[in-house]
Amino acid sequence: xxxxxxxxxxxxxxxxxxxxxxxxxxxxxxxxxxxxxxxxxxxxxxxxxxxxxxxxxxxxxxxxxxxxxxxxxxxxxxxxxxxxxxxxxxxxxxxxxxxxxxxxxxxxxxxxxxxxxxxxxxxxxxxxxxxxxxxxxxxxxxxxxxxxxxxxxxxxxxxxxxxxxxxxxxxxxxxxxxxxxxxxxxxxxxxxxxxxxxxxxxxxxxxxxxxxxxxxxxxxxxxxxxxxxxxxxxxxxxxxxxxxxxxxxxxxxxxxxxxxxxxxxxxxxxxxxxxxxxxxxxxxxxxxxxxxxxxxx
Length: 297
What we know:
Blueprint: H1 2-12, H2 29-45, H3 52-57, H4 62-73, H5 79-93, H6 100-105, H7 107-125, H8 128-141, H9 146-160, H10 162-174, H11 176-203, H12 208-227, H13 233-241, H14 244-276, H15 279-296
């Protein structure tokens, strides 16, 4: 999902240049193009089969479940082994759902909740949420003008796009723990570089070129983290650590908590940068570093 969105940005960002569609006369074409792309995506996705797990466990439709497995996993998929896993999950469903109080009172489930929460806060404390709203403003604060910002965003997307193609191989080769640590480390590096860039832009205007370069390199680091799985750490850990009856409550707690904190961090960004400059970046660097240390331990 993250890789696909980056590739889409590589294609669409050049259209946002003032000399193309990013001007007062033609800007309406941009949402129109996005709407057409969304409709094309929906028109294709509507023909995808339903989840094989849903078909097997809830609809008890084994033939369609097998067809769905073959569609998503290819002809090499071992349906018998997958069927055994689905049977175990269906058995777990007969035990009912676990409440949050039961999760907290159980040592094993409490530990699983703690790990999932840490993974949920890796993207929360990263720059991805702030950049989704203020990336252009952030780069302009480093010294870029509007046209240069668009070119910089294009450069970030193009330079980080090769990770899209090597990410599956990296994920397969290095395993879960090194992957999670790498993603968290890239997020820490991004805040560090963005913080230095903001510090130089705040009171050292003779170093604006360095500020701009650090801002771009930091953004590339964040894009690489996103493509390596920054946004899917939580679902991976939920599927691996949490028994089926408690997945819903753990997912709800981790998701709602991380979203609330993300909203606060994003809302604080413009005022904080105006008042304390790079202090915001280094505060987020500290929080991101704490997540990295907790993951490492």
